[in-house]
Amino acid sequence: MSRPNPSRPALVLLLVIAGCGGLPRPIPRLLGPQSPPRPSPVPADEPEAADTLRRDLLDHHNRIRGEHDLPPLTLDPKLSAAARSQALDMIELGEIRHEGADGSTPADRVRRQGYPYTNVGENVAAGQETADEVMDGWMDSPGHRKNILGDFEQMGASRLEADDGRPYWCVVFATPLPQLDPAGAATDLVTLINARRSEDSLPPMEADDALMAVARDHARAMAEAGSLDPAGPSVIEAVNEAGIGYRRLSSAVSSGPPRPPEVLDTLSDDPGRLRDLLGPFSRVGVGYATDDGGLPYWSVVFLDPPPR
């Protein structure tokens, strides 16, 4: 992107990035000698003034969302830190953009702040002096408007000035990943699995305590390793070690779905997993755990016991 004319306000948008198991990785970017001159950023904004600005922008967003019967957003300091990081980078590079000086994406910057999310969006702009002006510009742009009226729960904001006085704006939108009670999440998924089986007139599966323990331990192992294929015993090995007999056994794992309904959708959308979901199994175990960044891991074990 060429450097914008400092005399003209400018806008750039990023449409919603859906949360998933894999997060975007930074793309290395080298800045050669032909890079445009970079104005030096002003010193850190005063906390009181920054807080007033963030609340002013929050009020603007919520007034507009209220006019469209949408729930209000709340401010999150981690999202404001991500927004400030990008405002500083835009000042450093002398242009409005979503790619950070280090090649980072909005999702990368939110993740760096330790904010686990289901979706992320970002609006940026430069040149507008007031919140009224920047909001008018964003609402006149279909993409920015979509973010303002988007399916988000929280936002963070920053407005910084380059040493030539040009303002740079960044608003980051996100919805946090829910932090579920592991036992409750497992029970809720079993309930949903059996509701799905009842639609096909199939008998419910029993939540087997021993299988629940195997699935729980496997989910924890995946979360600790940050991998769907952690070191240690496999599900089959863990079932055998626990002395659980079976005639048929199958398992499914997933990372990213935030709640039991999304896990059920993931199972239902995969033909192989759907066969297990509706298969000749009478017992089930479910485990749920999150990694240090809040990313959920799920383990589901289906079992048909041996004949008595």
From TrEMBL:
Residues 58-172, 191-302 form the SCP domain. Residues 27-48 are annotated as: Disordered. It holds the Pfam family CAP. InterPro entries: CAP_dom, CAP_sf. Gene3D superfamilies: CAP (3.40.33.10). It comes from the Bacteria. Residues 34-44 have a biased composition (Pro residues). PANTHER family: SCP DOMAIN-CONTAINING PROTEIN (PTHR31157:SF1). This is Cysteine-rich secretory protein family protein. It comes from Tautonia plasticadhaerens.
